[in-house]
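Format notes (please read before filing issues)

Several people have asked whether sequences and structure tokens are stored in separate files. They are not. Every record keeps both together, in the order shown below: the sequence lines, then the token lines. Line labels are part of the format and must not be stripped during preprocessing.
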Amino acid sequence: MREEKTFSFFLLLFFILISQTTATNYPINVWPKPTTFQWPNPKSIFLSSTFTISHPYHRYLTPAVDRYRHLILSEHHRPIITPAINITSSIPLQSLIISVSDVTSPLAHGVNESYSLSTPSDGSASAYITAETVWGAMRGLETFSQLVYGNPTRVAAGVYIHDLPIFTHRGVVLDTSRNFYGVDHLLRLIKAMSMNKLNVFHWHITDSHSFPLVIPSEPKLAGKGAYSNEMMYSPADVQKIVQYGMEHGVRVLPEIDMPAHTGSWAEAYPEIVTCANMFWWPAGSSPALAAEPGTGQLNPLIPKTYEVVKNVIRDTIAMFPDSLFHGGADEINSDCWNTDPSVQKFVASNGTLSQLLEKFINNTLPEILSLNRTVVYWEDVILSGNVKVNPSLLPPQNVIMQTWNNGPNNTKQLVTSGYRVIVSSADYYYLDCGHGSFVGNDSRYDQPPGTDQGNGGSWCGPFKTWETIYNYDITYGLTDEEAQLVIGGEVALWSEQADSTVMDSRIWPRASAMAETLWSGNRDETGMKRYAEATDRLNEWRYRMVSRGIGAEPIQPLWCLKNPGMCNTVHSFTS
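Then the structure lines:
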């Protein structure tokens, strides 16, 4: 009771002292920027070497508390610019007290991640985090850790934060089929996501290039479709990754892309895959058989297809507890299907390729739904100009659409049709763009000096800078009602030219830019874009991520960090 009265007093005090000063002027900042950050009288207090964190026991919160206590006491972060704030008390802060209203809410889409945090003005009282759920408490712990710095360790004093995300779905797509990523690298990705308050690891596990996931009922798929025995994910690996995600407040969303992007399945079952292992772009005027090298699509006319697919669905869902399952359904190639005699006969009998896709969806969607999952599909399944299904087959209450083409226009089409939408616009959120083409024997690179190089051979070039990502509004052009259907966004790293050696630098800190915009927005209190002041904060945050073992690439020379504002353009554009 005494603790509750003390906390209530601090809440009242901070509300009375609310200042109009924005976090721009604060000597210590948090990334992503909280929705409410009040620090009326910036000072700091030392942290006791016996600092404790009290909390309700929870299977996943307790390991997080242990992890953060160790980080807080051992990190000794040294900001690039030493905060010009005084120590307010000789009494060090002894404890952080965490209160959680609901310790039973599972980590699922839409879970409450809000929290409030207060630090006392001196060490005579405790710091407090209150949250509705353990997942909100984890977000508060990350925020508290960023308020701690220096050696000896100190913490910002007299801070009040109330924080909650704008969007409930904030994620990263990583493709582990084109190039393999070891388990430890995936864990590091999840760790960095948690630091940035991202909550969904969208794992694009399989594709035409390899099938690295061990399916217990279909062991031949990985046995023959993986690059090697060392480049597989066992059920035990998956369990480790999912468990680690839970301890960091990050859901793991599996994607088994089908019926296209399935050439690797042909290593085990060649009879169910069309155009497998063909050269992707035949000589002459023939159209390409795939969007890139690596051909193969499941044949919806073969009964064996569904026997294998349903085994894959069941085993994958058994390994991944998340309520969402991603079924792919993008980039169906007409010419790949048309190489198959059974498809040719079907089309000759007045069948269409869209009917083939509908047959596949009708045979697989009910299976996924029967396992109590909501299905995510790429937008192509209803928006493709060539092969698509009637939206009536995909009820919005059971299906979420993920958009990647045509920017806000496709988002508009999808929400107008009543679908919830995850935004991954290639124009803004594709992290692999701008590195040129990966195909060999490419005459586009054999041009006379002085030739305009355009996008350098990258279909989605140019490179997406952090500012490009930061300034993108994923609900642009939508009504307030339509915007409610946009559940969030994901940046994507497709791995044609990436693997674990470059993973960190390709993703961070550009994914941090999206993380802030989806958490608290990209505008200040006046409605103006805040990318100018975000630059110095992101510089400092990138530096701290590196000190925590994340190989985030620099966004400016170190000189710019030591001279805040000096590297900005003289131009000011309003938006």
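For reference, the curators noted about this record: Confidence is low (pLDDT under 50) at residues 1-24. The domain at 169-437+456-562 is CATH 3.20.20.80 (TIM Barrel).
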